[in-house]
Amino acid sequence: MSEQTIVRAIKKVWKSQPTIEGAGVHLKRVFGFQELPLLDPFLLLDDFRSENPRDYKAGFPWHPHRGIETITYVLDGDVEHGDSLGNRGMISAGDIQWMTAGSGIIHQEMPQGNRKGEMLGFQLWANLPAKSKMMAPRYQEIKRNDIPVLTTPDGIKIRIVCGTVDSISGPVKDVMSEPEFLDVEIPAGKAFTHSIDASHTVFAYVIDGRGYFDPKRSPFSHEAYGDNYFDMEPPCACENGTLVLYGPGAKVNIITDTESVRFLLISGKPLQEPIAWYGPIVMNSQEELKNAFQELQAGTFIKGE
């Protein structure tokens, strides 16, 4: 069977874990440094959701980025942002900001929540290839109404942030890892099949409900990363807060039973380059990393001013 026709099986699954980030934001880390290089070109995914403003109001005050792209996707509430280049704005429910930090930017992101104090959003970090790490910083800020929504005859709803589904392309363009970023909702009792470049890393993150991400429904066909070794009855279905990392193939197939499911489906071309990572700066060598922090201390971090 050709790899181009293989439905991807699950390689690993794991649950997001509580952590504290920024100035004291309580969130769930889906993956990060510990999972390198499993999700190449992706570095980190955080899930920040709460009904208590004390969990997120401290926010992420001024901090630098270099060598990566940060993708902030908000489903409920507002995130106020600003940067060293003078940009200011608000990311609201349904909006996405795709920031290419490139050679360097200093910015802040301050979650505000909605009128009820609720906040729901995600931040994904994508690595930049060595040739692009020192490119000029830029933003693609996309509002909710500019993100196309495809609804199939079965009632499956697909918000296309980046990539193409049935000849409909998302508004985020010209990003480095050829990514696809979809927000998918499948009603109960339906199936979703989607073709993905066989050379890409692919993962899904469940944000509501539960579904079967392995069409064979076999909980023993993949590694349950971080689970109890003595759990002899792992669940077949993946539920809210679960990350699904796929193995090789060119299609994914997700099925629901008595419940609906909503998930982010994200893929990208692996860079297969060395990583030197400290905090919000990701380079290819320790020397480049050291140079970045020396420039930060010397006040020469921001280029082109």
Succession of helices and strands: EEEEEEEEEEEEEEEEEEEEEEEEEEH
Number of helices: 1
Structural domains: how many: 1
Structural class: mainly beta
Which whole number gives the mean pLDDT?
92
Regions with little confidence, pLDDT below 50 for 5+ residues: 229-233
Task: Let me know the largest β-sheet.
Answer: 9 strands, mixed
Judging from the principal axes of the Cα atoms, what is the shape? globular
Based on CA atoms alone, the radius of gyration comes out at 19 Å
Amino-to-carboxy terminus distance: 55 Å
CATH-level-2 architecture: Sandwich
How many extended strands? 26
What does this molecule look like?
Fe cation binds at residues 63, 65, 107, 109. One of its GO terms (molecular function) is quercetin 2,3-dioxygenase activity. InterPro entries: Pirin, Pirin_C_dom, Pirin_N_dom, RmlC-like_jellyroll, RmlC_Cupin_sf. Belongs to the pirin family. Its EC number is 1.13.11.24. This protein has 305 residues and is mainly β. The protein has a single domain, classed as Jelly Rolls, CATH 2.60.120.10. It is 4% helix and 47% strand. The protein contains 1 helix and 26 strands. It has one helix at residues 286-298; strands spanning 10-15, 17-21, 25-31, 42-50, 60-65, 68-76, 78-83, 88-91, 96-100, 105-113, 119-127, 138-142, 149-151, 157-162, 164-165, 168-169, 180-186, 191-195, 201-211, 223-224, 238-239, 242-246, 251-255, 261-268, 276-278, 281-283. Strands 1, 13, 14, 17, 19, 20, 21, 22 and 24 form a 9-stranded mixed beta sheet that branches. The longest helix has 13 residues, at 286-298. The relative contact order is 0.21. The model is unreliable at 229-233 (pLDDT under 50).
